[in-house]
């Protein structure tokens, strides 16, 4: 049985995808996915990969949805064609149309020369639409037509261009809920959801935790030029018991950080750099922050579940005012930043670490959420987009970087 490629997939856009590339990734040891529930998912992937059906991959952020998409492509008859990943939330609404479907010379200010879109780049292969839930409604309508007619029209163009592309999509939020809220087209949802694959959280497949940790130790030891360290039994137990809200990506960061700071000959429980509990010195601030979080609409669903009743809005505001008063008495400076950072962190956690859901609840753009989470150290800086189709910077790329 073919094995899943190791986490994370690393080929860059300048490296064309093909059978040889797929074979090199599939030579990785299959013990990286050893949990029985992961094996069940692998068997399901192997069954659907040879088809040409659209697949919707769901799961929390950091669970490995792109890894599954790459394995589907590598196990399909399209393996010799390009694999193109598009992060739907990485572009503004004014740019995503041109990025996906291309544009003609003069289509908008700064459009110098014609540029093929990602669908044309993926012709003969697979396109992976990550965070499909971030796609604007206007673009959803055009995407539906592309899926139905198998042809694209560039922005500012009149001619339709045929494309032969398999579409894989991923979402970290409940698309059915977005459909009910009229924020995602129902017909597009059913067009994408021919086959549905759910990637479990790391805490739901504990058998993968220690093998993944060992893999990251090996990877980062080689990358840093360090001697490979072993995990002690108590360290393994601590890793298994950790909540891993950030899933595999969080585990990778923990191992990387541990190797950078560990000065021992092995990694024990004490040397693991897991997130620390709040210190006693910050207890007063944490208490006030908790009061703010409890008073906010984003976390109120948990209060309802615990008490069976929802506090009246007046009570919510009174609790919020009391929390702010305590902060004024205890801190007296930088209150705006403290409250804003606390609100962002709490909503991010309640949203199961989904940047899209956090942006929706706060009523701000995902780009703003991402920038603030990076500043707070909740997430790392974005990696390069791992696409295998050749690409050069265009005015759209430059404008996108300015927006980010």
The proportion of strand residues reads: 5-15%
Structural class: alpha/beta
Helix content: 40-55%
What is the overall shape? globular
What's the architecture of the largest domain, going by CATH? 3-Layer(aba) Sandwich
Give the number of helices. 18
- The end-to-end distance, rounded to whole angstroms, is 42 Å
* CATH H-level superfamily title of the largest domain: P-loop containing nucleotide triphosphate hydrolases
Averaging pLDDT over every residue, what do you get? 77
Named CATH topology of the largest domain: Rossmann fold
Write the element-wise H/E pattern from the N-terminal end onward.
Answer: HHEHEHHEHEEEHHEHEHHEHHHHHHH
Would you state the CATH class of the largest domain? Answer: Alpha Beta
Task: Give the count of structural domains.
Answer: 3
Computed over alpha carbons, the radius of gyration is 23 Å
- Tell me the quaternary state: single chain
Which regions have little confidence, pLDDT < 50, spanning 5+ residues?
1-31, 277-289, 295-312, 383-392
The counted number of beta strands is 9
Largest sheet: 5 strands, parallel
Strand order of the largest sheet: 2-3-6-1-7
